Amino acid sequence: MLSSPSGPDRAFRVEGLIARPFAHRGLHGHGRIENSRAAFQAAIDVGHGIELDVQASADGEAMVFHDDRLERLAESEGPIGGFTAADLTRIRLRNSTETIPALGEVLQLIAGQAPLLIELKSSGRGVAALSGAVNRALADYVGTVAVMSFNPAVGRWFARHAPGVLRGLVVTEAGRPSRGRLRRLIAFFWSKPDFLAYDVRDLPSVFAQSRRRHGLKLLTWTCRTDAHRSTAEAHADQIIYENEG
After folding, report:
1. Strands, DSSP E only, in 8-105?
2. Which of 25, 87, 206, 212 minimizes the number of CB atoms within 10 Å of its CB?
3. Helix boundaries (H) for the chain
């Protein structure tokens, strides 16, 4: 199912990936919690792409959940990595009848109906367990999909072990564009991304625009206001948004 790791076909696949706006953690709000089945279905219903987050369970499965702890979003306590996948699928999301979904289940729900961005939440260089779990879940998936992460080791893992999977580097300059420039360059060359997903608060960015001038596509997150959307229109190729109505 996955294409060649290089060449013009790869650029064509990125174009297809970013053809629609992406709902950040699904189209949540109005009673739908982030990274839930209902939020993903709502994004599908309006014809938009989906961005979601994955964390590793104690037994190395990819679970769809943003935080590294359960308290904010679920009716339980503790680190998500302290529970097995079976345990997590029984924990209810706050203010919802839903439980924490595994990535495999969400892929079955989406089933190619929407472009998909999977953000891997993994710090340090120990990314093999989560990256491997995501790659296994994608093995039989038929649909437009890419992985991305703040951690360049994730991109490097996919470049080495699953080069056919599109990959992105998530970047924030934290309001300090001159600091961390070398770190951003190292992360870029380490991860070999097909696209950047950039903090809208940092645009316009010298680093981002230099990559864009060389043909790299630029997504921007998280667009919540008219001002954000205006910035994105001027300086990026697609938005990852919340609160679009």
Report:
1. 22-24, 49-56, 62-64
2. 206
3. 8-17, 37-45, 85-88, 103-110, 128-138, 152-161, 181-191, 206-213, 226-235
d(CA 245, CA 237): 21
Q: Position of tokens 């990819």?
A: 62
- Please give the structure tokens belonging to residue 93: 């999301």
Residue 50 to residue 15: CA distance in whole angstroms:
16
Distance CA 154, CA 132 (A): 10
Q: How far is CA 44 from the centre of its chain?
A: 16
**Overall pTM surpassing 0.90 (yes/no):** yes
Q: Tell me: the pLDDT tens digits for 137-187? A: 999 999 999 999 999 999 999 999 999 999 999 999 986 766 788 999 999
* Cα–Cα distance measured from residue 147 to residue 120, given in angstroms and rounded to the nearest whole number: 7
d(CA 220, CA 210): 15
